[in-house]
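Troubleshooting: if your tokenizer reports a length mismatch, compare against these two reference records.
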Amino acid sequence: QVRLVESGGGLVQAGGSLRLSCTASGLTFTEYIMSWLRQAPGKEVDFVARVTWSGVNTNYADSVKGRFTITRHNSNNTVYLQMNNLKDEDTATYYCAASRRLPSGYSREHYDYWGQGTQVTVSS
């Protein structure tokens, strides 16, 4: 059974930092592109960041470039999202997702597996 388990969310003041983690089990981690997505209440899912199989290539949403960093440690099947200089608009449930191929969209059907999500709340 494949599981993606996120952790590290919480309540933080604007300008603060959080580090999210997502640990995968039940799959061959190096065969999957790992992504972070988020969904704010009443809004659609938004892409946040993506890292390819080896960790060399990364992509970010324009809204988080320069503030967020995605990394992966294939040795322990974990992908991280370091979030700095957090803003009110970063408040959302953050999900990690795994896909064998480059996703063509951001909804769940474009990914092979999703985590259960971790809540990030930024207060001003």
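Reference record two:
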Amino acid sequence: QVQLVESGGGLVQPGGSLRLSCAASGRTFSRYVMGWFRQAPGKEREFVAAINWSDGSTYYADSVKGRFTISRDNAKNTVYLQMNSLKPEDTAVYYCAAGPPWSTVSRANSYGSWGQGTQVTVSS
């Protein structure tokens, strides 16, 4: 089992930036795929971005492509989500997750480990 702890959420104005962090520990996760999801009140959990820990390949939802960047720091066992040009519709609880094959990275039910979530609010 992989343990995941997110941080970095907060309140930001439209057009602003935030960087979320996901610290991973536990089992060897060098072979894992790491993903970010988000869930707004009354909505389904939505895929945001994923990264293949071993080779750095990335994949993004169309809604965030060009604005968000997922990256990893192998030495710190941490995955990041840099969020720029934030919009009110980006407001949600953001979750880090680990586990699936690359072919199913956008499916929440493919992930076996989840963090507790961090709130991101975009508002003026």
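Descriptive notes for reference record two:
- The chain has a mean pLDDT of 93.
- The radius of gyration is 13 Å.
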